Amino acid sequence: RYGTVTGVQTCALPIWLAVGRSPIGIWFRTGQSVPLEQIVDSQTPLGIGDFLHEHAPHGRLFCPIEWGDYLQWRMPQSERHPILFGSHVHLLPPDVWRDYLAVVGRQENWPAVLDRLRVETVVLDHAGRSRLIAALDRQPGWQRIHTDEIGRAHV
Questions:
Q1: Rounded to two decimals, what is the model's pTM?
Q2: Backbone angles phi, psi at 61, to 5 degrees
Q3: What is the pLDDT of residues 22-32, one digit of tens each?
């Protein structure tokens, strides 16, 4: 019958509108991709990811667990620069999780933990770990290699 709105039509319209405005919907409609900075959270370390992609560090990389997956995607893990922590913290042995917490919590032994884990690159966010960044700046043997509005990298 004409003029009758069915349940399917009522549900389909909002879904079509939502998908049509999403990045994949825009790509489907226009053939153009949406820039990454318009898709991700404003605290995603895009600049740090770009820097590390161009200047891949050697050795293990310590970063906030919130950034591990993005950095792994931006610069895939390899023997040259394995990323120690990501979102799969439930798979970490308890002692490794304690090591992470010791460093981000700036426990007295945090420099020794980085040494024991053989970390050669540390990437941190200004918003959540500014005190650790300041402590790392004062720590002998570490130097800044990149700073942007989101965070900082040290080797």
A1: 0.76
A2: -115, 125
A3: 666 766 677 77
